[in-house]
Amino acid sequence: MHKVSLLGETLVLVVVLSVAYGEVISLNDQNIDNVLGSSDIAIVNFYADWCRFSQILAPTFEEAGKKIQEESTVPGRIVFAKVDCDRETNIATKYRINKYPTLKLFRGGNIVKKEYRGQRSVEAMVQFAQEQAKDPVIEVEQLSNLEDIDTKKRHIIGYFESKISDNYRVFARVANVLRDDCQFHAALGPVSMSERTSGDHISARPSNTKDDVPYTGPLNSYDVLYQWVTEKCTPLVREITFENAEELTEEGLPFLILFHHPDDTATVESFNKVVAEQVMHEKVNINFLVADGLKFAHPLHHLGKSTDDLPILAIDSFRHMYLFPHDVRKDLSTPGLLKQFIEDLHSGKLHREFHHGPDPTTQAAVVIQADDDTQKNIPRDTSDEPREPAPQKITSPPESTFKKLAPSRNRYTILRDEL
Questions:
Q1: Cα–Cα distance, 299 to 230 (Å, whole number)
Q2: Closest listed residue to residue 196, CA positions, set 247, 143, 138, 125
Q3: What are the respective helix, strand and coil percentages of the chain, to the nearest 5?
Q4: Residue 269, CA distances (Å) to 237, 297, 316, 324 in order
Q5: Is beta strand 25-26 parallel, antiparallel or unpaired with respect to 78-84?
Q6: What is the Cα–Cα distance from 77 to 244, expressed in whole angstroms?
Q7: Angle between helices 166-177 and 222-233 (to 10 degrees)
Q8: Could you tell me if 229 and 217 are in contact, meaning their C-beta atoms sit under 8 angstroms apart?
């Protein structure tokens, strides 16, 4: 009797999984972590029922999800899912969704910076999903091949006894998530024998060098290895140039750019430090960049500034540009100011206030005694204090400098601020 019951439960489980993964899965607060975390690749459609473009995409996305499951040999490895952003506001807020529909890519439960920017067709989305599911680890046939890998790219190299070992499985999981940031290589078994005198090990090879940096953490800890590889493969603050600007727009994230004089290394160092200490958690929502202000004089002109005003900090949302409303040299390191600037972009406040004047909860400056006995200005909430109504100003923020590079040709977009 027990065996029959157990068999029945197993059959029920198989049926439930087949139904769940045989169609596009609706995500909510209760199932999102489990669905995304148990899949290798997840493509998630963040939509709104009232949005015409969401309505147009829906049947195509559903058909792509159905087709990928019919062609997949491992149920649940590639998942197509959707989030009703009006109903699941917590999820929409968490992933900074402010346009519909938005197609986000997740690997092993981790969101990837790049949005899906390809054609909105069944064939294109299925092909994209299948490409993303390919093995990200390049198997090394002989160690001498490692001398010929592209020095312009960053590499993570692993030496393992076996492909079925726990160490390799952790390495492959990390590679799956960070495949866009580094190339991953693995020498296995006899090929790696000479490098494994002390056991399995992993090293990083930065760009423009052949000097490897060894990993000294536990090989079987995903979290520790993931953090180490992230630091080696993805600089938190990158430099934008004329050569890589279009590539950066492909990631689909707004730019937070410090325009600086090429000789001003102190401000660049300060910016790197503040980003790392105060807003590192925003790295999946915005690109932190530095730019040579002399070479990028055109964006400064859009902002009504010149090279004489350097350093300048601004956000380019691909629609408009917004100036950091504080003195970069004096106030950049003040706790909370940079974080608030980014939050005001995500909430739509920057755009809204340009059109309609300050919000009712506009922050006023007050002077307090700082820890170093110097006087500093910090924001103070004056929402309950009587004041004159803010004058309505009919204007628009400066247009984006980089919007022409943004690959929006195949992208449906409707922003909350436009409603």
A1: 30
A2: 143
A3: 40, 20, 40
A4: 10, 21, 21, 18
A5: parallel
A6: 33
A7: 40
A8: no
Bridge partners, residue 83, by sequence: 46
In this structure, of 11-25, 124-138, 157-171, the range with the lowest mean pLDDT score is 11-25
Tokens of 107: 């690997």
Strand order in the sheet with 237-239: 237-239, 287-292, 255-260, 312-316, 321-323
Which residues, including other chains, have CB under 8 Å from residue 402's CB and lie 6 or more apart?
A: 245, 249, 255, 299, 316, 318
For the chain, how big is the Rg over CA atoms in Å? Answer: 25
DSSP state for residue 148 in the 8-state scheme = G
How many alpha carbons lie under 13 Å from residue 30 in its C-beta half-sphere? 2
Count Cβ atoms below 10 Å from residue 216 Cβ, excluding itself.
8
Q: Which two tokens stand for residue 314?
A: 């601004």
Given this model, what pLDDT does residue 353 score? 80
Give the residue from 325, 187, 314, 337 showing the smallest Cα distance to 240.
Answer: 314
Helix/strand/coil for 274: helix
Q: What is the Cα–Cα distance from 215 to 73, expressed in whole angstroms?
A: 35
- Six-digit token string for 151: 């020095």
pLDDT digit string, tens, across residues 91-149: 998 887 878 899 999 998 888 877 787 888 999 999 999 998 889 999 999 999 999 99
* C-alpha distances out from residue 346 to 72, 90, 240, 251, Å: 37, 14, 22, 17
Contacts of 351 (CB under 8 A, 6+ apart): 317, 319, 320, 322, 397, 417
How long a stretch of residues is the chain?
A: 419
158, 97 Cβ separation under 8 angstroms: no
Residues 6 or more apart whose CB falls under 8 angstroms from that of 303 comprise 312, 314, 321, 323, 398
Cα 325 from chain centre: 25
Task: Report the alpha-carbon distance of residue 106 to residue 35 in Å, rounded.
Answer: 11
Locate 6 and state its tokens: 């157990």
CB 212 within 8 A of CB 229: no
Rounded to the nearest angstrom, the gap between the alpha carbon of residue 214 and the centroid of all alpha carbons in its chain is 27
